Amino acid sequence: xxxxxxxxxxxxxxxxxxxxxxxxxxxxxxxxxxxxxxxxxxxxxxxxx
Length: 49
Hints:
mainly alpha, 76% helix, single chain, 1 helix
């Protein structure tokens, strides 16, 4: 994930803070999606029985 060379105007700390910011935003969304997919799969299993 070293794409610093593509953006020379951004320093390494800025890039790292940006990545941290993106991770903070996306992690809850990813967790929700995983939780929802697990719920749906459980519902499908219950429907088949």
